[in-house]
Write a structure and sequence with these properties.
Oligomer: single chain
Shape: globular
Strand content: 15-25%
Radius of gyration: 23 Å
Number of helices: 11
Order of helices and strands: HEHHEEEHEHEHEEHEHEHEHEEHEE
């Protein structure tokens, strides 16, 4: 039996039983324990299953609840009584838990967070930061525009300020490789890979990507999606890679229907969709068109804001937003407290995969 055949059989057994002992695999495959361990290690390295003591499983660990306000610890000593400014691109969707994480951490350290909302615009970002500086903030958390007109000048200006600045969910672009600003970010590309690997572990061989045209996260998700399908040997020419309008915006229903038709004709039965609202809209259009989810179409959402309330509940990749805000605040407080030379810190948090009901469909089960 070829290695590829053994791998497919191992995955099929784990899909069927949820968990399989290594001794059972040795007996079923008729090979040595060394061969089974090598096969299992390769599949685990590719993210298609999880090794446990004495066996393998498809289960993935879930993210725990957000930790309540923690003062700066592993990142350095806290700065008590600090006035911390924060500029977020929105106070809706995605950003509230980030803001709450930062606020609780600053409050736990005896400080105060002052928030200003911007609008994904470099000029507006600069205006809001200037207002906070006039307010007397001692350090800043900023999620600035990193592309478009004025973005590079904004980042250069942030790097020149005489107060510490921590970037939140942003990194300097390649044009500014040595901009010495701390940053706390989410590994969005890795999160996309988690979703692809989960769908492949369920038997899917074509996994499409659907992203919202309005999201700055789309680029990282596309990078992670492409890397995952390439590393797993999937056919890149079959699965769609499309930006769609925001759910509910003019023309959204027609474009979602066209996407579903394209998947139907290509035999694509699995999609990673950013974000929850677009995934929910896509499921609605699929069901209105007579497609069963998860029976005929498997869907994984990225964000996990309202995924659990979907019908069916959406399997989702969940960025640790509350913890991200807390880590950003810890970095800012530590930078403010330390008087000695401190290296630039770039902290990246991994998202988690929360498995629900929306991806239980069998691969390739589109109606003929």
């Amino acid at each position: 039996m070829l290695a590829s055949e053994r791998h497919q059989l191992i995955l099929a057994l784990v899909r069927e039983h949820g968990a399989v002992r290594l001794a059972e695999l040795v007996e079923r495959l008729g090979v040595t324990a060394v061969t089974v361990r090598r096969d299992v290690t390769e599949l685990a390295d590719r993210g298609l299953l999880t090794r446990v003591h004495g066996g393998v499983t498809l289960s993935r660990p879930r993210g725990g609840p957000p930790e309540p306000g923690r003062a700066a610890s592993v990142f350095g000593a806290a700065a008590p009584g600090a006035l911390v400014g924060m500029v977020a691109p929105s106070v809706e969707y995605y950003w509230p838990p980030v803001i709450q994480g930062a606020q609780s951490t600053v409050a736990a350290a005896g400080g105060r967070l002052v928030l200003r909302a911007s609008s994904y615009d470099a000029a507006e970002d600069r205006r809001q930061v200037t207002t906070l500086l006039e307010r007397g903030v001692q350090t800043l958390l900023v999620a600035p525009a990193t592309s478009g007109r004025g973005a590079l000048d904004l980042l250069r200006w942030l790097g020149s300020l005489n107060v510490p600045v921590v970037l939140v969910e942003r990194l300097p672009p390649p044009e500014l490789p040595t901009l010495a600003l701390d940053a706390a970010t989410t590994a969005h590309a890795l999160g996309a890979g988690l979703a692809v690997r989960h769908l492949v572990s369920l038997g899917h061989r074509a996994v499409g990507l659907v992203t919202s045209r309005s999201s700055p996260t789309s680029r990282a998700l596309r990078t992670g999606w492409r890397e995952a399908i390439a590393s797993l040997g999937l056919d890149t020419g079959v699965a769609p890679d499309l930006d769609v309008p925001v759910y509910g915006s003019p023309g959204w229903a027609g474009e979602y229907d066209a996407l579903l038709d394209r998947c139907r004709h290509a035999g694509v039965g699995a999609l990673l969709v950013h974000s929850d609202r677009e995934a929910i809209g896509l499921i609605q259009r699929a069901r209105d068109g007579g497609l069963a989810v998860p029976g005929e179409l498997a869907v994984v959402s990225y964000d996990d804001e309202v995924a659990a309330a979907s019908d069916p509940p959406l399997t989702a990749v969940c960025p640790q937003k509350h913890r991200l805000g807390a880590v950003a605040a810890e970095l800012a407080l530590a930078r403010l407290a330390e008087t000695t030379e401190r290296p630039v810190h770039r902290v990246q948090l991994w998202p988690t995969l929360v498995v629900r009901e929306s991806c239980g469909g069998a691969a390739g089960s589109w109606p003929a």
